[in-house]
Structure formats: C-alpha cells, structure tokens
C-alpha cells in the first residue's frame, strides 16, 4: 500500500489564484486519498516552484511537472534536449494573451522555476521488499526520506543555511539556461516498506531542516496532516501559526507526503 | 535585523525621485555638447520607472509592491507627473504603468539564440521629457520630500525603508545638506530612509558606481552629493556584490554619470533566479 497526500497554501497576502508552485503525480486521481498501486510500473511525483520575479511562472512550473511525470528527465543533457519543446508550449500559451507593454517586456525575460522529480521503482516479487528511488533536482525544492523516525536522506539541500533567494532555475528563455545545466543534480537510493518521502518547496523545506538541526523531528508534525480527517484547511491554519512565530518564510507552500 | 522587512502588497515601500529641472541641465552631458544633461536625466528617470513597473508585472497585471513619487525642482518645486497623474505626490506603481505620457518604439539588440544578434522592436514608455529652467532649489525639494515621507511612514510604519533618489548636476542654489541629514534620520521600524544620489555632470570622466570614498570623485559637487548619500546597508551590499559591483563595506548609494537601475534589482520581492539578469 502506498499513500500520497498533497497540501498547498499561498503566500500570506495572496490567494490560491496567485499560487505559483505546481505538482503532479501518477499515483492517485485525487489528493488525500489512499489508493492501491500498480507495482508493474514506476511511480512518479514532481513539484516545481515558479519564481515570483517572473511572469507566467505558474504555467511554466505546471509544464515542467507534467513533463517529468509523463517522461522523467534523466540528466542535464536530457532536459537540455527537451526544453525547447517545453519553451515552445509556454510561448504558444502566452501568444493567446493580449499583453500590456510591461507584460510584453516581462515575458521577454522568460519564466523561471525549480523542478524536483522523484521516481519510485518496485521489486518485481513483492511491494514489501521495497525498491529503488531516483530523483532529479534543479533549484531549491527538496526531497526528504524518513525511515523508522529518522531522517536518512535530504536532497538537494542538506543544511538550512544553504537556502538563499537566488537559486539557478530552469527558464523558458533558453539563453538563460546556460548557467543552469551544471546545477542539475541526480541522486538515487533504496526504499523499504514503511519509509516516508516528503517533497517540499523551499520555505517549508527550510523550516524542516531548521527543526532537524535543533534535534527535532518535523516529519512527525507533517505526517499528522496525512492522517484521516486532516485536510488543507487545517494545514493552512498551521502554516499561519508558524509564519506568525517567524519560523517560516512567507512564500507559497507545497508539501507532498508519500508513505510506502 | 534592519532592511529585511518584506515588501508586499500589504506592506509596500515607496520610491521618491527628486529630479533637477534647473537651467544648468541645458548644458552638455559628459563632455558631449550634442547631448544635454536634461536628456540624460529624462532617460534615467524613464528607465527607472520602467524597471520598477516591470519588476512588479505579473501575468494578471501589476502588483503594488511600490508607491512612487516624482518631485521636480527648477522653476518650481512639486509633483512632476503630467496627464492623469498630474499633482499626485505618491501613486501606486500600477497607476504609473497604465499612465505613461506616451509609448515610443525603440530597437533593442538581442541574442537570436543561434549565436547572432538581431534588432528587436520594443515599446519604451515615456513619463518625462527633458526640462531645464531657472535655479536649483535642492534644499526646498528635500523639505518637501521630508513632508511626504513622514506621511508615508505614519501610514506604513513597518515598511522596508523608503528610497529617495535625487538626480541632479549638483549645482544647488540653496544648501541642501541640513535637509538631507533630516531625511536620512527618518526611519521605519525596519531602518532609516535611504537617500541616494545620481550625479549627471558636464565633465568627461569615467562613470563611478557606489564608491566607498571620495578618491574617485572629480569635483566638489560630486563630493557634496557623495557626502549626502546613505551607506548601502548589508542586505543591499550583498545584492550589489551578486550584480558584480566591487563592495568593500562602506560603499554609498551614489553614482557619477551613470544610472542606478540595478538598485531596483537589489530589492527583494520574492525569489529572483541567479540566471535572471
């Protein structure tokens, strides 16, 4: 059995119409619902965080997560080979819009986004035997693997102080991607039945690592939201409370919890 | 820590530009008799406003992270916008975006993505045309700025500190130093107001960006404007370093025969990719 739960919450002062993260996955048809899985083919989950300082970033993030889930990126070269097509899709969408002078100018710089993709593969014999995972990341969206109440893997950022406000991100403007290709990171590992994976955008990922650095176990807080009866509204109230305590940077939040 | 307040639609900050419209702006700029200082000033202020607007542009329109005022000083001291913004002291950036005096078409040279350069037509908004008339009442414009900034700070006491950018050839008819000091002493809960100066000179000399001393400055006007300029706070120093400026720790918000468009990039309104330049 595998479960996947998604929680989203916009930046304070914004509504969900302004939310510029994106996520997509091949497990469930709807969020917050346990579902049996088909262990013949891999599971894929992707999150992306569109940059505030670009426009139509949510649409760009959306394209990236769908592309990964439908056909996972395997290397920097692979992304490089496929980014032109994605950029064309983004530009085709923009062309349908009537834009003011400032919007035209902003669009010419392109949209920017992180992307983090996770693929879970299963042992042929039995789900209980676990399997392998592989992940690819550009930017500061993070993956955490937790086993028996301990953090066993953090990717691509391992310390909270590594977060900054200007990561290299994938752009719909191909010229801007030249410095990005060296920042494409790949990792792989093993998973066992009972493991938890957390895919988090940067603000909540920074909170997660901060808590770990204090010797706390932040996954215990997050996993409660995935239990039956918990929902996005409760999650949002909790986000408000930790923002009020200045424990969380004011930013869009996406949190995907996978239990295998 | 100072200068870390979030800039958002619920907690915006303000930019107040002071533009020298005095008679001496009629003179040639940087040793070029065919280009007036007033032309250079108009280019700088239009480019600054354009960049502020673009920074706030999103798919659904303009987000009002900034309120902007432009005070002219020359034959008179007061709001310098024309058209529907006339007489307004501080306006949300979305109103500025919607109300340029006109849109001109200009040619920009851009990479064609295949190793070549192509000319691309772009729209360039004009809010201000060159003006050069009468004296340089810089002290008076600072007094007016102080009044407007006090009102702003009472409305948004926790904002990122307002930024005042004075664009001038530095030949004041009234001594501005006292009023400049008073402006720099105003503060929000996040730090003191930042007063920056752009010196447009008729002298032909290399541009100077954010100097950390008077050594490179060629005349007393430049030195006076430098002395009135705020030091870049650590947060902006870091941003300036990322933009490639040489920062030693006591650099001031002063430029000589150059523009200051990058100051807008220094401000944090959310994730700014390192590959967005």
Topology:
The complex is a heterodimer of chains A (260) and B (277).
Chain A: E1 2-9, E2 21-25, E3 33-35, E4 43-49, H1 57-70, H2 76-95, H3 101-109, E5 112-113, E6 115-122, E7 131-138, E8 142-147, E9 150-155, E10 170-171, E11 185-191, E12 196-200, H4 202-213, H5 218-225, H6 232-244, E13 253-259
Antiparallel strand pairs in A: 1-3, 1-13, 2-4, 4-6, 5-10, 6-7, 7-11, 8-9, 8-12, 12-13
Helix pairs in contact in A: 1-2
Chain B: E1 13-20, E2 28-29, E3 32-36, H1 37-55, E4 57-58, E5 61-62, E6 66-73, E7 77-79, E8 91-92, H2 93-98, E9 102-111, E10 117-126, H3 138-155, E11 163-168, H4 177-185, E12 187-188, E13 191-192, E14 194-199, E15 208-209, H5 220-228, H6 234-242, E16 254-256, H7 262-266
Parallel strand pairs in B: 1-6, 1-11, 11-14, 14-16
Antiparallel strand pairs in B: 2-3, 4-5, 6-7, 6-8, 9-10, 12-13, 15-16
Give structural notes.
The complex is a heterodimer of chains A (260) and B (277). Chain A has 260 residues and is an alpha+beta fold. Helices cover 29% and strands 28% of the residues of chain A. Chain A is built from six helices and 13 strands. In chain A, the strands form three sheets. Chain A has a six-stranded antiparallel β-sheet with strand order 3-1-13-12-8-9, with helices on one face. A five-stranded antiparallel β-sheet of chain A has the order 2-4-6-7-11, covered by helices on one side. Chain A is globular, with a radius of gyration of 18 Å. The termini of chain A are close together. The model of chain A is unreliable at 28-36 (pLDDT under 50). In chain B, the strands form five sheets. In chain B, strands 1, 6, 7, 8, 11, 14, 15 and 16 form an eight-stranded mixed β-sheet that branches. In chain B, strands 2-3 form a two-stranded antiparallel ribbon. Chain B has one domain (13-99, 132-270): Rossmann fold (3-Layer(aba) Sandwich). Chain B has helices at 37-55, 93-98, 138-155, 177-185, 220-228, 234-242, 262-266; strands at residues 13-20, 28-29, 32-36, 57-58, 61-62, 66-73, 77-79, 91-92, 102-111, 117-126, 163-168, 187-188, 191-192, 194-199, 208-209, 254-256. By secondary structure, chain B is of the alpha/beta class. Chain B is globular, with a radius of gyration of 18 Å. Chain B is built from seven helices and 16 strands. The chains are: A alpha+beta (260), B alpha/beta (277). Chains A and B meet through α3 of A and α1, β4, β5 and β10 of B.
